[in-house]
Each structure stands twice: as structure tokens, then as C-alpha cells.
């Protein structure tokens, strides 16, 4: 099976749903942000502070393209789609899935999360504006799954069903 790439805005549930899904599908799961943190021996927020966002985005692209393109579930950082090359690469090398969640729900999840560099010192309106800016990029995915209001099990099941449909179309 080609690799599965979960994309979506921060707080959409990519990592949590990805872990549940990988268990269901018996796939290895790799989180691009975690891999970058391990390789750099720094947290994402520290990479942003010390090196800047463009440096981080270059690391993100390099990390993505070094991952296996078969039998792996990849959970990505929310901004991976800001580089069109990443979108094209994920679509060419696997199934790109956009996990949509309502921006109001995302704000509730992120409001007090100090680990996210693009959230710190931002107002709700700014976060929703960033979401709206990225939305057309996320929508380039093969599949969109709306996770708003779904619990973890239901969201993982919805994504699993979408993958089955996509996989059947590939044969």
C-alpha cells in the first residue's frame, strides 16, 4: 500500500487520529514534526525562534521526502502545505488526506497550547485568518474528512473508510 499522508491545520487531530489509524491498518506511523525535533534535538518552537520559519519549512520538505513511500502513515505539521512542492510530492507518492475541523473547534483546542509557535500571542481572528489562508492548500488533498464533532474512534473509522475507497480506485 502507498503511504498515507494526514494533513490539516494544527489541532485538527492528525497525530492522535494517525496513531489510532496506524494501529487499525497495521502500518508504521511517522510524525514529521517529531522526526524534525529528534534530528535537531530541539522543539519546533525553539527551531522557529532560533532559525526562523523558512529554515523549518526547508527541514520539513527534506524530512518528508526522506520517508518511505509505501506502508507508512505520515502525520504532518499543519504548515507542510505552505510549500506546493510538498503537496505535489504527497499526492504523487501516496494518499494525501485533509483532516478538516471547524476553525472554532480548532481554536478551543489550541487556545492555551504554548507548544505551538504560530499560536503564541495570536488572537482568535488571526488564527482563523491563517486557517482560511491555508484552506485552499489543504483542499488539494485526494480526500477530505471532516472530524468536527467526531470522537477519536469515529474520526479514525471515517479516515479508514476513506482510505479504503481511495485504495479501491487505484486498482
UniProtKB/TrEMBL annotation:
Binds 1 Mg(2+) ion per subunit. Its main location: cytoplasm. It is found in: Cytoplasm. One of its GO terms (biological process) is aromatic amino acid family biosynthetic process. It catalyses: shikimate + ATP = 3-phosphoshikimate + ADP + H(+). Keywords: Amino-acid biosynthesis, Aromatic amino acid biosynthesis, ATP-binding, Cytoplasm, Kinase, Magnesium, Metal-binding, Nucleotide-binding, Transferase. GO terms for cellular component: cytosol. InterPro entries: P-loop_NTPase, Shikimate/glucono_kinase, Shikimate_kinase/TSH1. GO terms for molecular function: ATP binding; magnesium ion binding; shikimate kinase activity. Pathway: Metabolic intermediate biosynthesis; chorismate biosynthesis; chorismate from D-erythrose 4-phosphate and phosphoenolpyruvate: step 5/7. Pfam families: SKI (PF01202). Its EC number is 2.7.1.71. Substrate binds at residues 33, 57, 78, 134. ATP binds at residues 11-16, 116. Its cofactor is Mg(2+). The keyword Secreted does not apply. CDD domains: SK. Monomer. Catalyzes the specific phosphorylation of the 3-hydroxyl group of shikimic acid using ATP as a cosubstrate. Belongs to the shikimate kinase family. This is Shikimate kinase. It comes from Sutcliffiella horikoshii. The gene is aroK.
Amino acid at each position: 500500500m502507498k503511504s498515507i499522508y494526514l494533513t490539516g491545520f494544527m489541532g485538527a487531530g492528525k497525530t492522535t487520529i494517525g496513531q489510532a489509524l496506524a494501529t487499525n491498518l497495521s502500518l508504521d506511523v511517522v510524525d514529521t514534526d517529531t522526526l524534525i525535533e529528534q534530528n535537531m534535538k530541539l522543539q519546533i518552537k525553539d527551531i522557529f525562534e532560533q532559525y526562523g520559519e523558512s529554515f523549518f519549512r526547508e527541514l520539513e520538505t527534506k524530512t518528508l521526502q526522506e520517508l518511505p513511500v509505501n506502508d507508512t502513515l505520515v502525520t504532518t505539521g499543519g504548515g507542510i502545505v505552505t510549500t506546493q512542492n510538498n503537496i505535489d510530492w504527497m499526492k504523487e507518492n501516496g494518499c494525501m488526506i485533509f483532516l478538516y475541523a471547524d476553525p472554532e473547534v480548532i481554536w478551543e483546542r489550541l487556545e492555551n497550547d504554548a507548544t505551538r509557535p504560530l499560536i503564541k500571542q495570536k488572537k482568535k481572528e488571526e488564527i482563523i485568518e491563517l486557517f482560511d489562508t491555508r484552506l485552499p492548500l489543504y483542499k488539494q488533498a485526494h480526500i477530505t474528512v471532516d472530524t468536527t464533532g467526531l470522537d477519536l474512534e469515529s474520526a479514525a473509522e471515517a479516515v479508514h473508510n476513506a482510505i479504503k475507497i481511495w485504495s479501491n480506485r487505484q486498482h
